[in-house]
Design brief:
The chain is an alpha+beta fold. It has helices at about 10-15, 20-30, 35-45, 45-55, 65-75, 115, and strands at about 55-60, 60, 80-85, 90, 95, 100, 110, 120, 125-130.
Amino acid sequence: MPAKHKKHSGEDAASTAASMSAGQFRAWRKSLGMKQKDAADALGLKKRLIQYYETGERDGKKVEIPLSVRLACYAISTGIADFDGKDVIVSLRTTTPETVTETGSEDAQATATPAETAETDETGTETQDGPAPFAS
């Protein structure tokens, strides 16, 4: 399911940024076939934080899902397992809303540079699948 893209300009980006609801966060995790522990590991968080995000509260107070976590959710959804500032680490895990399968070992990953993930469209123009790479 493709993500909807909203454009933000300049300083207004932080104030108009979309937020992810508790239900949307849970739906994201379940769409990838992840358990709470799996999501915590993929996001580099404790399982308890995942539980807070999914209930939308902690000790009776509202919990917001931070921008960094929302962006990480998007990256994971598109198959990005890691990014070192230059190269994208692509997960070889393929997902559908119902199943999760892996190619190779349990921790199957591959390193790809932006040039290696580029494709050519029908006009011969190179296109990038996923987020645009950083300029070096």
